[in-house]
């Protein structure tokens, strides 16, 4: 006998009720969403009231006890004024609801700012590398220990888009000898090696807080050409440095754009503490460019004497120009020029002293600055020693010792290989120092008296170096592009910028003999000597 099918209500699908249950869930979810949309303003206002209440409690707890009474009186007075104003309570209720709705709005989720896995590995490796230098045996709670936590030592850090460390602030223990240059240098070398070579880092030591801040420095601008800088008389722009190193900027033109740049300004004159300058560097690092830039700025307010010891004619563009007294490259002309400069310094001192004693103003010619610019003077010293003549550096003693009072400034540039031939007066009286080109920490310290706070870079453009004025800090320096305008190998724009700064000629170019030395001594009259026998 055939079996009848069971009623639908007793089948498995109907008995289980899966389809009605699914529909019930959808209905419940839709009802909940609708109720949330309806009650969302009330929920937002409630959340805002709760946040305002918590903030009020924290503010009340932070208020000193002696100020709570006046605060309660102020609140009560405000409530009384609101109650007396027409529609005041209603407006106050609306304002409270609006503020609560603003305070109760949903805040966007905070983005994770922690380091990535690769960045964490870099920080941990850097931390492990510093352990031998910032820890000692017997420390009960060492800040730096193998397999330790770097988060307690590195308080701030930042990475660039390539994942390389560009800023790091670390804390070191109080027993670390941060006052010794050798100890500092070891730590800086480790940070330089582990953070990535090929970049220049600046290290700022805070001995009081036992902290070290390492930052990556950008390249200094090399496209600033020679131009008229907005400076006062007695100020000379040696170059440009980092914005955080000086508290001054100058308007400059970079190509076709105008902007501001932080300069390294050297002040000369009677009130200067570093009236003379010495620049050292390797061949081709921009020492002659620096002297040419200084000479062009000095010609705006004074006279210039140039001694080109190398004899390459790098200062030929200044020959015969207004304010240029002489451009010498030979030994005889240099000796005569420097001897006249020494006598001129003495004359200025005597004339100024007599004017002061008489109560009269100083003569105008004693107030006009005189610049003595000497490039590779040690080469002429060697020639003078071979020829048995006087050392040209000896003639610089009077301008170096008494030049500040006589408005005479001496600028000397030479190379590291011949620095030991510099005389003692040149070393002692040149308080403004510049190092150009690649140099070791020991060489920079020997010239500037203090090591640089930055790491050297493998690629150094011409005119790049360090400067220190007196006892000031060591600054990065980029000399303005001031090439020889007669050198066709340089850029046309930079050469034209130098030509625009040259004074007018006072001697025609055809009549100016570059090779004939200019003598400041009185020429002797030639007399024909007739033998006695011939007279008889």
Automatic annotation (TrEMBL):
Record bears the keyword Nucleotide-binding: yes
Domain FtsK intervals: 261-445
Spans traversing the lipid bilayer: 71-103
Family matches, as Gene3D superfamilies: P-loop containing nucleotide triphosphate hydrolases (3.40.50.300)
Keywords on record: ATP-binding, Membrane, Nucleotide-binding, Transmembrane, Transmembrane helix
InterPro entries recorded: FtsK_dom (IPR002543), P-loop_NTPase (IPR027417)
Residues annotated as binding ATP: 281-288
Keyword Membrane recorded: yes
Protein name according to UniProt: Membrane protein
């Amino acid at each position: 006998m055939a079996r009848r099918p069971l009623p639908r209500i007793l089948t498995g699908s109907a008995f289980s009720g899966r389809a009605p249950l699914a529909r019930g869930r959808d209905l419940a979810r839709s009802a909940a969403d609708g109720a949330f949309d309806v009650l969302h303003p009330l929920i937002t206002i409630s959340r805002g009231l709760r946040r305002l209440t918590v903030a009020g409690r924290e503010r009340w707890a932070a208020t000193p006890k002696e100020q709570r009474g006046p605060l309660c009186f102020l609140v009560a007075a405000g409530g009384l004024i609101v109650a007396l104003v027409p529609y005041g309570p209603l407006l106050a209720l609306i304002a409270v609801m609006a503020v609560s709705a603003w305070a109760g709005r949903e805040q966007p989720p905070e983005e994770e700012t922690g380091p990535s896995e690769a960045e964490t590995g870099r920080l941990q490796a850097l931390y492990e590398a510093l352990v031998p230098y910032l820890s000692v045996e017997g420390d009960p709670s060492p800040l730096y220990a193998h397999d330790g936590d770097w988060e307690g030592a590195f308080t701030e850090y930042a990475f660039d888009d390539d994942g390389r460390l560009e800023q790091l602030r670390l804390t070191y223990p109080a027993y670390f000898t941060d006052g010794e240059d050798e100890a500092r240098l070891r730590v800086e070398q480790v940070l330089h090696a582990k953070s990535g070579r090929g970049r220049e880092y600046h290290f700022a030591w805070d001995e009081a807080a036992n902290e070290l801040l390492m930052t990556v420095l950008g390249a200094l601008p090399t496209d600033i050409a020679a131009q008229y800088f907005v400076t006062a008389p007695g100020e000379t722009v040696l170059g440009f440095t980092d914005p955080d190193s000086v508290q001054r900027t100058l308007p400059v033109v970079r190509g076709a754009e105008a902007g501001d740049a932080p300069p390294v300004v050297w002040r000369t004159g009677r009130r200067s503490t570093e009236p003379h300058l010495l620049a050292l560097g390797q061949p081709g690092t921009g020492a002659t460019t620096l002297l040419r830039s200084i000479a062009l700025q000095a010609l705006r307010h004074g006279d210039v004497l140039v001694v080109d010891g190398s004899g390459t004619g790098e200062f030929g563009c200044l020959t015969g120009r207004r304010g240029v007294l002489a451009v010498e490259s030979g030994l005889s002309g240099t000796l005569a020029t420097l001897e006249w400069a020494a006598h001129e310094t003495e004359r200025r001192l005597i004339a100024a002293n007599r004017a002061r004693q008489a109560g009269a103003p100083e003569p105008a010619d004693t107030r006009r600055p005189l610049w003595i610019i000497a490039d590779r003077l040690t080469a002429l010293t060697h020639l003078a020693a071979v020829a048995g003549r006087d050392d040209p550096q000896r003639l610089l003693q009077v301008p170096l010792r008494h030049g500040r009072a006589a408005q005479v400034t001496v600028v000397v540039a030479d190379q590291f290989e011949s620095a030991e031939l510099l005389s003692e007066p040149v070393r002692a009286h040149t308080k403004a120092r510049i190092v150009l080109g690649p140099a070791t920490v020991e060489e920079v310290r020997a010239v500037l008296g203090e090591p640089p706070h930055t790491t050297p870079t493998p690629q150094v453009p011409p005119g790049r170096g360090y400067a220190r004025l007196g006892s000031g800090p060591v600054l990065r320096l980029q000399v303005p592009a001031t090439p020889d305008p007669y050198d066709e190998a340089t850029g046309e724009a930079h050469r034209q910028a130098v030509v625009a700064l040259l004074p007018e000629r006072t001697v025609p170019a055809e009549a100016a003999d570059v090779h004939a030395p200019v003598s400041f001594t009185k020429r002797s009259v030639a007399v024909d000597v007739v033998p006695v026998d011939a007279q008889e």
